[in-house]
Amino acid sequence: MSLNKTDTEAIARSSTQAVRTRRRFDGAWLARNGVYMALIALVIINIVITPHFVSVANLRLQLIQTAPVLIVALGMALVIGTKGIDLSVGSVMALSAAVMPLYIGYGTIPAILIGVAFGAVTGYIAGTLVARLGLQPIVATLAIMVGGRGLANVIGGQIKNLNDPGLVALGSGSLFGIPYTVLIAALLLLLVMFVVRRTTFGRALEAVGGNPLASQLAGLRIKRVLTYVYIISGVFAAIAGVLVAAKSQASDPRTLGLLIELSAIAAVVIGGTPLSGGKIRVVGTLAGALLMQLIISTLVAHNIADSVAQMVQAGVIIVAVYVQLGRKSR
Amino acid sequence: MTDPLGPTIAASDQPTPALQADGVSKRFAGVHALTDVSFSVAPGSIHALVGENGAGKSTLIKVLTGVYQPDDGQLLYQGNPVSFSRPADAQNAGISTVYQEINLVPLLSVARNIYLGREPRTRLGLIDVRTMNRDAAKLIREFGINLDVTSELGTFGLGIQQMIALARAVTIEARVIIMDEPTSSLEIQEVQTLFSVARRLRDQGAGIVFVSHRLDELWQLCDAVTILRDGQLVHTGAMADLDRRGLISHMLGRDIADVAAHGATSFEEEDTITDQVPVLSVSGLQSPGRLHDIDLKVRPGEVLGLAGLLGSGRSETVKAIYGALGTSAGDVEVAGKKIRRGSITTSLASGIALLSEDRKAEGIIPELSVRDNIVLAVMDKVSRAGVISDAKVNDLVDTFIKRLHIKVSSPKQLVSQLSGGNQQKVLIARWLCTEPRVFLLDEPTRGIDVGAKREVQELINELASKGLGVVLISSETEELVEGSGRVLVLHEGSISEEISGSDLTNARLLSALVGTDRTDDTDRTEADALETTEEGKS
Question: Could you give the dihedral angle defined by the CA atoms of residues B240, B245, B250 and B252, in that order, rounded to the nearest 10 degrees?
Answer without folding.
Answer: 150
